[in-house]
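Figure S4 source data
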Amino acid sequence: MPQITNILVVNLEGNRNQFLYILFHMTFNFFYHFGRYVLLLKTAFSRPEKFSMYWKETMRQMDDIGVGSIVIIGIISVFIGAVTSVQFAYQLDGTLVPRWYIGYIVRDSAIIELAPTISCLVLAGKVGSNIAAEIGGMRQKEHIDAMEIMGVNTASYLVMPKIIAALIMIPLLVCLAAFISIMGGYIASVLGGLITHEEYLRGLRAFFTDYNVVMMIIKALVFAFILTSVSAYQGYYVKGGSIELGQASTQAVVYSDILILFADYVIALLLTQ
């Protein structure tokens, strides 16, 4: 029995030491990457060397991020509104709630939560992975090193135009997503025979609050900054070959999605009190 007790004590001590080591390693990695992320942003938002060069790059990024994402945002938004209206109509069966509440729920759900959050989660996969792959490919091919030798602030030139373009275009995409979601709800509920045209319009006009639109824009701005800056960080510091580049693109999407959901919760707490 004493031998068994000693073995158990040794195992418990080993497990505790291993747990403390993992906890210390995770904490160290968090502060290490967070510090590098902050320093990258500080360098990225320094004064541009040549405004015309940054202007052209910002316009190119606005086309890639905004115009290049309209189709996927439109398709997703139609089904967001359609599914919301159909499911809420199902919940209304056998209740005393008026049917025109379908339009009210579709409108507020799209504006407050579904349009900004779902759209930015999708854009994190499309835009975020593209940003990480683009910058990471330049790092691997030593394009970034060559630009630094020529005196170019690579962090500023590669990161700042992407963030500015995202802060301009993604809120516009989110507004478009909210409008298309409402149209999708109309198609599913009115053309689907769930309610009449007049009932849906009555729901859209009921209990409207301008503050919800402000909340949607704030979410879009925060999410846009997160998905572009985190993805740029993952690509800028990538090391190794094609496998590491693929891992960096995957990490860019995963970390961006997690941070977007966390920021969504924090914004909801702050703006709905």
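Figure S5 source data
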Amino acid sequence: MVSSSSSSSGKISFSGLASGIDTASIISQLMAVQKRPVYAIMDRVDGIKTKIDAYTAIKSAMSSLLTSAAPLKDASTFGQRSTVVGAVTADVGKVSATATNGAAIQNFTFEAVSLATATTAVSATAMGSPIDSAVKLDDAGFGDTVTAGTYGLRRPNERRHAVLQHRRAWAERERGDTVAELKYLDAARQSYQTAFEKDSAISDESAARAAYLIGDLWLRLGEPMEAARWLETAVRVPEAKSQTGLIRMARERLYDARELLTGQKKAS
């Protein structure tokens, strides 16, 4: 049996000549079987290319990460400090602050008690004699013997006393004398508290600052309960609402006081 077929090209092909077997179909299937490994390899190549693209993307991302993380190896990265001045009045431009790397993280509050005035000190006697070029320097008589004196505050009040005691505490801290520091911190706290309770001339803004300082000092003295009471007072003073910097600092210290109080209760 012979089967034939013709195409549009005019060519005639014969399959199964004299045998009845469709040899063309068999050959086509055999060729398809032979191509299977090729197709499998092509699929593997495509898969490998996809993985290479993914690895390339990961490599690029890791390189960017290493570049961004490089500053973390530098110790100065974690020691950098910045400062923010939160003035409670319109005088923010009159105060500036800078911090060196590694400086302690803390808050400072400054209160302008009064404006500085020009002062001139005049000695009752001459501080020295005219220099005589004909005598030795040792015998020229440059000045009299220095004697001790006293300094008095003009219009003293408890707020000024508190500021001076507070500054003295900072000086003792710099010297490393903890006992003296606590002594002057407590003295400053007492003066601030007296001014808050008895100074009729104190404004609401000054009262809010005084309440914050009293609370902060109580906390430094290890009395979180008293600290919390005064810091809550600072937040509740009506005029304090316009002092956003003071309110923020008072709330931060109030949180510290409550945390310390909780720790003390657990320990007991």
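The longest strand covers residues 3-6. The chain has a mean pLDDT of 75.
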